[in-house]
Amino acid sequence: MNAGISRKGEAMSVEYKDGLIELALHRDPCNEIGSQSLEELESFSESLQSLKQPAHALVIHSDLKCGFCAGADLRELYERSHAMVKDEAAKGVRDFLERIHRVLNVIDAAPMTTIAAVHGVTFGGGFELALACDLIIADKTARFAFPELRLGLIPGFGGIPRLKRDIGNAVVRDLLLTGRSFNTTKAQQIGLVSQVVAEGEALRAARATAAQLAKFDHQTAVTAKQFIKPVPYEELKREIDIFCDLFSRPAVQAGLKKFVQSTDAQPYLP
Question: How far apart are CA 57 and CA 48, in angstroms?
Fold first, then answer.
């Protein structure tokens, strides 16, 4: 990835200029992360690791009105798993999780400050993508949730270890075990987000923050990040094991089937 690069994919676009990388999500209906999004995220993460010039910041945001990201594409996951025999389906789910974990680990440990500029729906895997970033800047419409328990699952993209790292266990238990969502007021009170801004202002605020970061010594910022934000690799591996075990259970398959057959516009909303 070189300075001045602009690249547009089916699910997301990348721009890199003057030391700032912007990753814009734009996959309808609400940036669900399926195979296409994963492939583009993998390409992006490879670019991050081969930067020819150091970047001081990465901003991830959504171009869609619905919100930042509704999470994993559960319909695709269900349909693909049912098109395979049991052992192949289990292997496919594990492979998908291991791939998305590799991507989010790259973002988590990236040698730059990473900022998620979020609004609206920031659920499940979308919440986990935001948690991989160093800072979350949210407009007042943002809501955060892990609705996976409604399907008999746990978050599978690294959300539990990262939330435990960043916030107290009481908050993790609340989000995970109740499935309810937090608004920006609650999110700021518990230290989940660093800034709350007016509706539609998250990206502008993220860009302003990135401009401030450019004033500081790059290597010092990288060293500070490595010190205060270790990546919980062992817990992340354990999360994959637990998710895969739960996914194979009949109750989970029944819940996913009900989700897939739902005619609600946004059946993932708590």
Answer: 11
CA 115, distance to chain mean position in Å, is 11
| Pairing label, strands 113-118, 6-8 | unpaired
Flag whether pLDDT at 266 surpasses 80. no
Bond into 29 cis (ω within 30): yes
CA distance 22 to 5: 10
**Which pLDDT score is estimated for 62?**
98
Task: Tokens 């923050």: give the residue.
Answer: 209
Every domain of the chain and the residues it spans: 6-206+218-261
For 244, the token pair is 């895969």
Task: Give the strands of the sheet with 121-123, arranged side by side.
Answer: 67-69, 121-123, 143-145, 182-183
CB 199 within 8 A of CB 139: yes
- Per mean pLDDT, which range of 24-33, 97-106, 193-202, 242-251 is the poorest? 242-251
Predicted confidence (pLDDT) per residue in 221-248, tens digit: 999 999 999 999 999 999 999 999 999 8
Tens digit of each residue's pLDDT (9 = 90 or more) over 88-135: 888 999 999 999 999 999 999 999 999 999 999 999 999 999 999 999
Q: How many CB atoms lie within 10 A of CB 82?
A: 12
CA distance readout (Å), 96 to 34, 70, 185, 219:
9, 17, 34, 33
Percent of the chain residues topping a pLDDT of 90: 70
96 token code pair: 């998908």
For domain 6-206+218-261, the CATH class is alpha beta
Cα 216 to Cα 163, 206, 222, 227, 250, distances in angstroms: 27, 16, 11, 17, 53
- In DSSP terms, 69 is beta-bridged to 122
Q: What is each CA distance from 235 to 42, 87, 232, in whole angstroms? A: 22, 24, 6
